[in-house]
Structures are given as structure tokens and as C-alpha cells.
Amino acid sequence: MEFVVKTTVFFFILATVVEPLPALGSRRTYQQYSSLETGISTSVDEDLVTNFPNQPPVDFKHYAGYVTVNETNGRALFYWFFEAATTPEEKPLVLWLNGGPGCSSVGYGATQEIGPFLLDIETQGLIFNNYSWNKEANVLFVESPIGVGFSYTNTTSDFVNLGDNLTAQDSYAFLHKWFLKFPSYRNRTLYIAGESYAGKYIPELAEVIFDRNSDPTLHIDLKGILMGNPETYDAEDWRGLVDYAWSHAVVSDETHKLINDNCDFSGNDTWSNKNCTQGVDEVLKQYKEIDMYSLYTPTCTTNNTASSNTGGSKMQVMTMRRTSTMIPRIMGGYDPCLDGYSKQFFNRADVQKALHVSDGLQLKNWSICNDQIFSNWSDSRPSLLPTYKKLIAAGLRIWVYSGDTDGRVPVLSTRYSLSALGLPITKTWRPWYHQKQVSGWYQEYEGLTYATFRGAGHDVPSFKPAESLVLFTSFLLGESPPSTR
User: Is 375 marked active-site?
Assistant: First the structure.
């Protein structure tokens, strides 16, 4: 079943005309960014979230609202920011991005994975997350790019150019203008984390930050990136997807051989080979029968309004693009019935008012993923390996992890991609532990750490919350995952 998500577009009348933010190729000092204050509050009080419906009591503050990243076109990204649970002034800032492209960091990361409040179907409200990442950091969730969740543009032609490059530009502008709202974080250590197609967003944004940091007035203290089940290198992502499906008995030996004999995933005309297309279509057909993101958990079968609107597994297997080697970006996550409740929850007027969406006027078309963005994505880098090499040479901390029951960007895809980097191994493959149990395995390379999560699907923190917090803490400290019982 295919669902259609209407793109959220607002139109505002601006009282002041302001110069747009520059393209990445131009230079502008931070002081010049600071002069672009239309739509930027000198106080964050107006973004402070109070009376959030069903919120468990907490001692930390959280904020939500908009940052306009392009004044001329009226592009604005929605954010939700949680201070660290204790001593926020001493802890780093972590930017979390979900992928898709077209999926919400609020609907997934913030309320299904690593945020302090998790949506709960049984209570029809929120529950406190004992393993929230804001125990160790100040966490900033952004719905990116425009058209995702509550983020919007006043200029519909922006969607024609929507892709990796524009997303990186807008995310970079977002950070600088968000620092105007929260100046105490201007020089704070920054890490960027996320999953899935954010495996492309994150290195691309990190590269922009690194390049622009040559101007000290634009300096952002980025120290590292952390990516889960990330799309990395399309050719190896495809090969890993197929091999994983075969090795986990999703498809037959004959289908696997048909693909191996006929598919050149690194070529420019992969889909012109009908035998290749037939084989890959068979893989995707079989994955429709289960949850591709979590091979061993049930699919959603309930038909109530709080459930997924897919009529079965919430996974959406998108039509393969026959004109490129781009891997189909299949949208979804873990709990097979939670996405529908997320849609219901974030379309509530009281929730939107508390989050300062559209001045409290109820919108009715928030969706956890926007398939129009997915379908019309016009710009995607086929490989991030050159960017990895550049960031490793720059000394950034790079960690990658995989839930090993995910079929969407499986452990094989990531292992194949990382192997193509050819990095020297500094610490060989070994288990890591939590509460005296094996949580997964890890290996360290010169400039990169790779870890797996045993028994976790695509959105790892949804499956292994305690273990995820342990790995996240090790990442922030720059220490190896716990390797003794």
C-alpha cells in the first residue's frame, strides 16, 4: 500500500526584507550572520516548552520552534531541543538527524528512540525514557529538510532542487542561526548523530562545517560524527542488501545467483539489465511479507486509528528507480504500530500549540515521513567514502554502528562499505558488553570505530536503549566500548 503525504507549506507576510544567507561557496563572517536577526528572538523564552500534553515531570528545560534558514524564500526548519538532565552547561551539544529522505527527527529520534519522552500506545500518551541521551548531552532534534514534519518553505520551487546539497546548506545555516537563539552553545563542543539516510546528511554537513571553519569567525567546534545503519556507498549498500537477504533465508539460492550474475551495482546502467531488475524485484517482494527493518519481530496487524496506516507492516517499499544506481530509500522504523499514533499525536492542536507550531493554529498534515520528498529527491551522492577519508584526515571522531537484524541497511552493507576504505586495523574484532552480556562486536581502525548491536533492527535505540546509551557515552568519551564482562 502506498500513502501520500501532503507537503507542509506556509505563507507568511514579512514586514522586513532581509538579505538571504549565502551559498556555501561565498564567505560571510559570524558577525554578518548575527546581523540577520529577522525571525530570530533575542530571548529563547518564547521557545520554552511549557504545559506539554502528557509530559512526565522533569527537572530540565526543553525548547521548540523555528529557525528561518533562508529569508528570501522563507525556508524554516523546526527544532526541538532538550537540555541535558544535569549540568547542561558542562555537557556537549549533539545534533540528531533522521533520514528517509523525508522522515522526521521528532517522530523518530525524539519520541521513539533517544529523547526523554517516548510515545506509548498502551497509555495513549508519553512515558519517560530512562535511557535518554540527554543524560550525557544537550540534544537538538531538527526536522530536515524543508517539507519534513513541521519544517516548511514559502517557495514551492524549492522542492525542485531538494537534495543532499541543499539539505547540507540549510542545516549549516540552521546551526549558525540557532546559535543566535542559544549563544551559550556557540563555542560548545558539537557532535552530529543519526541513522539511515542521515548516513549521507551527516558526513556532508560535517564536510561543510570543516571547510567553512577555515574562517575563524564561522568556527563550529565539531569533534565527531556517529551514524547508525547508515547509507554510505550505494554500490556496496545494494550488494549488502541482497547478500543479507539471501544469507538470512529471505530469498532463494536461484534469486541470489540471478542477481550476482546480472547486476553491476557500481555501473551506470544497472537497471537496464532485465534479469538484474527481476532478481532485485524478487528481493523487495519477499521483504514486503515481513518488516525489512526488523526481520524477527511481528508486523502491525491492528486496524485502529492509532496504528500504522500501511495495512500491515509499516514498511513502505518504494518503486525502484530504474534510471540510477540509487538504493531505494524505504521508510520506516521499529514498532510496527507506533507510526500511526505518532501521526495522531503530533496533529493534535494542544501538542502543536505547546511546540509553538504555526502560532498555535492547528495543522492537520504532519506525517512521520513525506513520500513526495522521497520520490522527488534530485541530488544524492553515490558514495560518501571520499568524504570519510577527508574527515578522518581532519581528525574527526567517526563511529558507525549496525543493528544486525536490519535488512534495510544491513550489517553486510556497512561492512562492505567500510572495507572499501582500506583503513588499517588498530584493534581487531571482539565483543563488547553490557551487564555481563554480549551487546555486539566492534573493531577499531585508524580514524574510525565500527560496532554492531546483537539483535537490534534499523532504529537501534528502539531495540537496545540501555546498550545504545552505553555506546553513546563511550563515543563522547572517545573510549572503546566496554570489552570486559
Answer: no
In whole angstroms, how far apart are CA 412 and each of 216, 358, 409? 40, 43, 8
- CA geometry: angle 120, 303, 100, nearest 5 deg: 65
Query: What global pTM score does this model have?
Result: 0.87
- Smallest CA-to-CA distance from 271 within 283, 280, 258 is with 280
Among candidate residues 425, 373, 436, the one with its CA nearest the CA of residue 98: 373
pLDDT, tens only, 236-274: 999 999 999 999 999 999 999 999 999 999 988 899 999
Select which of 104, 196, 294, 307 is catalytic: 196
Domains of the chain: 1-232+338-485 (3.40.50.1820), 234-337 (no CATH)
Catalytic, out of 404, 406, 462, 474: 406
Catalytic, out of 335, 402, 458, 462: 458
Altogether, the residues listed in the chain come to a count of 485
* R_g over Cα of the chain: 21
235 closest CA partner among 322, 324, 323, 167: 324
406 is catalytic: yes
Tell me the backbone φ, ψ of residue 152, rounded to 5 degrees. Answer: -150, 170
- Judge whether 352 and 346 are in contact, CB under 8 Å: yes
Is 256 in the active site? Answer: no
Half-sphere exposure of 48 (CA within 13 A, CB side): 7
> pLDDT tens-digit profile of 39-94?
334 467 899 999 999 999 999 999 999 999 999 999 999 999 999 999 999 999 99
